[in-house]
Design a protein that fits this description.
The protein is α/β, with parallel strands linked by helices. It has helices at residues 2-27, 31-38, 62-72, 78-88, 90-104, 132-142, 171-176, 191-197, and strands spanning 113-117, 146-150, 156-159, 162-165, 179-182, 201-203, 216-218. Strands 2-1-5-6-7 form a 5-stranded parallel sheet, with helices on one face.
Length: 219
Amino acid sequence: MVKLLENTFRSVNIGMVNEMALLCARLGIDVWEVIDAAATKPFGFMPFYPGPGLGGHCIPIDPFYLSWKARASGFEARFIELAGHVNGHMPEHVVDLVARSLNANGRAVHGARILVLGVAYKANIDDTRESPSLDIMQTLGDQGARVDYSDPFVPSLDFAGRRLRSVPLTAARIRRCDCVVIATAHGQFHYDEIVRSARGIVDTRNALRGRKSKKIVRL
């Protein structure tokens, strides 16, 4: 129960900040600046950050087990299930941001070349379990996009019944793509080069903090 509480605590707080990110987007407010400002309070606030969804073996799974156990005991775990709903729909929101980035350049998702940066569920590891990047890639592919990925920690990937290989992240390849999606903020990515070369960028991790460009769409 201690482990379930720990992982559910994170899931619920991530769900809350993801919902805050969606609200801030509607209001035209930078959610990352809001979080940074709130984190200056010396007590009573613990910063959590929005993202493209939950990944890994624990946080996406343990809260749903606890919710199932609660229902079996005649108890409705509403916070847990609401957080799961919000977090589970973040990959769809990222796809909407990709469509917005493409529309700004007169392109549709169908037929567009999309490069997803990072398929591990968090930075600087090789674990793809429950990674939201896979959901983003699947949805973009279902909508007719031509999707590649680049991940220095995941050289190959079994995906949608076929074997994909990570493509080298070069300026020439970036320029050939219609949109680059930063799904995992690996430290090995050269972000200045990405900003210089990309036609459009969807940054789901605030990896481009401080960089100003009309081509960047932030979560």
